[in-house]
Amino acid sequence: VKELGSGQFGVVRLGKWRAQHKVAIKTINEGAMSEDDFIEEAKIMT
């Protein structure tokens, strides 16, 4: 898993889904955002 970048909220890494699809894996630092902000961010990513 290769790190692509990081910022105020966490780290983004490159990963593979089902061994063939490249995906971004976004991890969020605990306490970096409110639950409502997290839900809004998840909606953007889907």
Could you write a compact summary of the structure shown?
This protein has 46 residues and is an alpha+beta fold. Helix content is 24%, strand content 46%. The longest helix is centred in the C-terminal third of the chain and has 11 residues, at 35-45.
Note down, in words, how this protein is organized.
The chain is α+β, with helices and mostly antiparallel strands and 46 residues long. It has one domain. Helix content is 24%, strand content 46%. The chain has one helix and three strands; from the N terminus they run βββα. The protein has one helix at residues 35-45; strands at 2-6, 10-17, 21-28. A hairpin with a 3-residue loop joins strand 1 (2-6) and strand 2 (10-17). The protein is flat, with a radius of gyration of 12 Å. The mean pLDDT is 91.
